[in-house]
Specification:
The protein is of the alpha/beta class. It is about 25% helix and about 30% strand. The structure holds S-adenosylmethionine.
Length: about 400
């Protein structure tokens, strides 16, 4: 008779944890309280990775995943959990990570998580190509062929289906981007030849607005070179290489939170670090005197400048540079700073300038609670953490976004 284990809790990637014989066992597709038999997949010194071979008792929080590829595909991690309990788990995870990496508990400052629609929320997908199109399998570079994904809407899925039937030679990736506001679709083929299959154009043209071939540089082979999205009162142009929040409806809630936390008046001068296409800066521009945005991606900066013109905003300016390199050269004149860095968080130089400058309010938008905790630990030497709100930007995955309000002590 095989051993039966009880799942103790979830780790930060949504895997069940079992402690047995001095080892921690991480079990995929397992929820707290479930009694399971397991099959070991990977053996390391003090830990093992396993999958469930038999469920003896299942959790009342378990739901049947709606995706047929779920057990293979690495795109989603917690589709076996009902949405409400996934929100609770994400909120608890933020509290736990901050406590662990900041060495003290700020749970009392953490507001309830902002929920999303659980499916059809993504405005961008990256499909891998190798004879078939699909997503990477869990823990590997093998492709799970798909012709449907529940995280994107029907219009995007129709395009996935069409692309799945085109022969794609020398193509490594296909990216599909969508705008809810204009109902536009952009498709980008990463192809290492100029002699691409012309069927791409013929077949896709009736269904999409923009087609790009990316072969060292981006070449628009059909339609407008960009698509347009609207958040709040602003219309944003999005080029193929520019960052844009993947969950448009949640992005609006996120930006509203930033605006509330920034608590601007007409004298405030705002610095928007890692500004992408200028989304946050433009969103804040009516409430303050001036905004200055810094972004490393040239295409995103060009989009930001066009967005400024398109929305007739004249109190904002953008530069294309690396925040870490330029931060020491910019004038220390900002009363409010918004930072929205990539997962790696802030670099030490930027943190030290943010500590040195007399910034009244600092708003930190983070997509990784571990690097957020590291940076908050430093910043709280001179800033008081006033409030933190987790925002579910990525349902069905273990990822979580947080917005934090810090005020100079
Ligand atoms: C999480 S996105 C935020 C963008 C924007 N705030 C938004 O909400 O759309 C992070 C942005 O930082 C940019 N970035 C990454 N490293 C950077 C660096 N060292 N200096 C400046 N920008 C950087 C990326 O290109 C990306 O546009």
């Amino acid at each position: 008779m095989s051993q039966i284990f009880t799942i103790e809790k979830l780790d930060h990637q949504g895997r069940g944890i079992i402690r047995a014989n001095g080892k921690v066992i991480f079990v995929e597709n397992a929820l707290p309280g479930e009694e399971v038999e397991i099959q070991i997949l990977k053996e390391k010194k003090n830990l093992q990775e396993a999958k469930v071979s038999h469920y003896h008792h299942t959790s009342s929080n378990r739901v049947r995943p709606i995706c047929p590829y779920y057990t293979l595909c690495g795109g989603c991690h917690i589709m076996h959990m009902n949405y409400d309990s996934s929100l609770q788990w994400k909120e608890d995870k933020v509290k736990e990570i901050l406590k662990k990496f900041m060495n003290h508990d700020i749970s009392f400052l953490i507001k309830p998580i902002v929920a999303s629609q659980p499916f059809s929320y993504r405005n961008k997908v990256t499909l891998q190509v190798e004879n078939k199109i699909g997503y990477y399998e869990k823990r590997s570079n093998h492709i799970v062929p798909i012709n449907h994904c529940d995280l994107i809407n029907e219009k995007m899925n129709q395009v996935v289906n069409i692309i799945a039937n085109i022969k794609l030679d020398k193509c490594s990736q296909v990216i599909i981007r969508y705008s809810e506001y204009s109902n536009e679709i952009m498709v980008i083929f990463d192809i290492s030849t100029d002699n691409y299959n012309k069927k791409i154009l013929e077949t896709l043209r009736p269904f999409v607005n923009t087609i790009y071939i990316k072969n060292k540089t981006y070449e628009c082979i059909y339609g407008n070179p960009y698509i347009e999205e609207k958040i709040g009162n602003f219309i944003y142009r999005i080029s193929p290489d520019s960052f844009f929040q993947v969950n448009t409806k949640q992005a609006e809630k996120l930006y509203e939170l930033v605006r509330t936390y920034a608590d601007l008046d007409k004298e405030d001068i705002v610095l928007d670090l890692y500004c992408g296409t200028g989304t946050i800066g433009l969103f804040l521009s009516p409430q303050c005197k001036k905004v200055f945005g810094i972004e490393i991606n040239q295409q995103a900066v060009e989009d930001a400048q066009q967005n400024q013109l398109r929305n007739q905003v004249n109190n904002i300016e953008f530069i294309c540079d690396d925040v870490a390199k330029v931060i020491g050269k910019i004038e220390n004149q900002y009363s409010v700073v918004v930072v929205d860095p990539p997962r790696s968080g802030l670099d030490p130089k930027t943190v030290s300038y943010l500590k040195e400058w007399k910034v009244k309010r600092l708003i930190y938008v983070s997509c990784d609670p571990v690097t957020l905790a590291r940076d908050l630990k430093e910043l709280e030497e001179v800033y008081e953490i006033k409030e933190l709100t987790p925002v579910d930007m990525f349902p069905e995955t273990y990822h979580i976004e947080c917005v934090v309000k810090l005020v100079r002590k």
